[in-house]
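Format is sequence with structure; example below:
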Amino acid sequence: MTLGLDYNQAMVLAGTSLLGAASGTIGTFAVLRRRALLGDALSHATLPGVAAAFLLTGQRTLPTLLAGALVAAGFAIFVLAVLGRRTRLRDDASIAMVLGVFFGLGMVLFSVVQSQASGARAGLNLFLFGQAAGMMQRDVVFLGAFAAGTVAIVFVLFKEFALITFDRGFAEVQGWPGRTLDAMLLILLAGAVVLGLPSVGAVLMAAMLIIPSGAARFWTDSISVMTLLAAGFGVVSSSCGTLLSGSWGWPTGPTIILVASTIFIMSLIFAPRRGWLGRRRQQSVDHRRRVVQKLLIALAESNADAKPISASIARRAIGKGWIEQAGSGYRLTPEGLRKAEALSANRRHWIEAVERSPELTRSDAAFDLDVDPRELTS
């Protein structure tokens, strides 16, 4: 007994948690390499493999069906590679075509399975949306080994995977086999998709790969921290979704995705730097800082006393030691004068940079009076 769960519920919880860890880990690289749609295509491409494995072997054991799904996913990757090298189709068009064709083939093969006497009891349709409650101990052991292998490979080759994620050309110049490492990432992605078929299903597995990683992206700029957070979010989503589905009788796969979506929405709103509230707070801080900077420049250029826009701005500038009270107005302190001269010089440099580079604008994200643009290219 675990957390008041019976044996079968504990097995389901263990299996879905392992799935969450593996999905979040490999999903990080799918998100950073902008391959979110590839996960969707691979998940749909597994269906003909599941049906074909049953038709060829007549067995419904999980290793047999998942082996067929993995072969089909690998063949889908091969087709995508051929389309990318031999045709002028864009990646999104190739992915959409593979998704549609393989999914259609899978539906046809599923209908063939259902028409057979033994196929009517095979329950292969459960691979569309998943049925975690049907997992047995041997299934969880198999999934655990698969998940542990995925996480272990990512851990051992993490530095190499990170390098080709951000700059494959540089990695190849340094002597790393970029194409081989890229193929390994694709195989691991296909493996994670296959891993999730019994519990989440082909339709929702792409969301399981992407949502935890997308949520983790809001919290950090470090790929190692993002990978750990994504794995953690995946575990939390899977375990909480499993517990909720068991308590309220909801389908496990959709419930897991709803929990993951809740985590994503909370990250979107509350993450300190990239979240909505964090960005609003930073925008407010930047606005006040720039108002103070404009005040210093105005005082320096007019060589006269001036009143700031608001009392709060005055208090901020006085607190920095840049201005002081002068009758009914304010004037620059020696420190404020040095600050104003530096700001004025940076403004001139930014204007020159904008004139030299038409693609830059005054509203460019890098435009900052505190930053000399020449330092960005030095």
In short: Residues 276-302 form the longest helix (27 residues). Strands lie at 323-326, 329-332.
